[in-house]
Structures are given as C-alpha cells and as structure tokens.
Amino acid sequence: MAAELMDGRAVAARVRQEVADGVAELVAQGGRAPGLATVLVGDDPASDVYVRNKRRACVAVGMVDLHRRLPADATQQQVDDVLDRLAEDREVSAILLQLPLPDHLDADALLDRIPSDKDVDGLTVTNAGRLAHGRPGLRPCTPAGVERLLDEYGVPLAGAKAAVIGRSVLVGRPMAQLLLARDATVTLCHSRTKDLAADTREADVLVVAAGVPGLVGADAIRPGAAVIDVGIYRGESGLHGDVRFSGAREVAGLITPVPGGVGPMTIAMLLANTLQAARLQQHLPLVLP
What we know:
By secondary structure, the chain is an alpha/beta fold. The protein has ten helices and twelve strands.
C-alpha cells in the first residue's frame, strides 16, 4: 500500500495561525509586534523569490517587514554596517541574512555579527552550541520544520533509529542534533559514507538533505519508514527532490511530497522563530517549537 503523504502545507498553515495568535496576544499585552529584517545582497532570482515569500508571510501574521536590500557589489564593510545597525535597533526582533551571498563576501564573518537572540535562522555559533548542549535557543528553520512534521504525524522518535543524509550546518547537522535530543539513535550519513543504503535501510526515520537529486530510491528505505525529503529542484518534468518519489512511496509508511512537504514548513518555522525572538527580547518566556 502506498505511503501516506505528509502534508506540509496543512501543517504550516496551523503553525502560521499559532504564530498569528501569538503575535496578537503579544501586542494585546502591550508588547511590540515582532519585526523581521531580511537582508538580501545582490540580484539572485531564486533568493529574490525566497525573500519576497518570507516578507509576505511575515506581514500576513501581523509582523513588521523591515527589509534591507544591497547591491551585488556591496563591500564587506557595507554589509557589516547594515547588520550592526539592525542588531542595535529595538524594533528589529530577528535578522535573516539570505544565503548564498556574492562570492566576494565572507558569509561566516557576517553571520557572526548577528546577535544570537536575533539569529532567526539559528546559524550563529552560539545557537549551534545551545542546540548541541540541549539548551534553549533559536533552532534552524528547516530542521525545526521537519521535527514539527514528524510530531504532527505521530512518528515516535524516542528509541527510534534515524538516519540523516547530509551534514550541512543548515540542515543535516542540526537535524541530527534535534533527533538526538528526542532520544532517537542517529546515524549521520554523507558523501564519504561507504554503503549508504545499508545505513538508511535500518532507519525508522530517514531525512534526506543531500543536495543530490534522486539520490535515494526504494531499495534504500526500510518498509514502513517515515521519509522526509528536504531537496527541491526543477527538472524537465517539474519539481522533484533527493528521493525518487514514485518508488519510495511504495515502500515507506509516510513520505513528504515535493513540493508541498518540507518547503512550507521552513517559512512557517521562520515565523515561529521570529515570534520567539521577540518574546526573548521583551523578557517573556521562550516557548520552544
């Protein structure tokens, strides 16, 4: 029997409503509406679309859009100055530096300028350390969205075997940390893994964030497993991910479609993080997603 689809759009809609309710409650209590500062450097078409969607979603839940755009030839110092001003601005609850940046800019150095409590992407060394040590903090949006999806579909994590393919600081590594924090036994796979399918076939939960279209087929999936496909690419036949969907669906128990799976959750968790950041800065309790 074909796997049940994990509807990221429906779950994301619930998260957005929770955030909208949280923003309204914050303002009703006399607090400031959260302000999201997106920083876009250059004119990459994909980045432009992503940022536009994030800004639209921000406004829809009652937040303040504080966008900054810089030309592609902006210097390191110019971007530094923008980030420093945003860091000091009380109206700015969260800062998102859209990646990738033009090649001449040092992304790590720029991310380091973002205060950890405004680091809505959870990418600073401080927030990575908080995650590794199991302390409260802002979590990377995509892994947090995957965790929420798994919870919404009742996937048990404590004691489960989980495999994550991909070790990026954006998805793979924090995803493994989140699963480990939920008492899963986690295998982190990557390009040097000798027998990838042997590891993934053992997994009750498989998160694929390899950046390799069609990497995982049915033969690499444990029957009944929950399969989360983080990849998204445009091919001749439309959008697809890291998992060969048609075959995988015949083996898995749960599976995310592409599109409509993880993608909507990433923006929803961005909004949740922005609300959390605003609560932190206004000395209200942090409620982890």
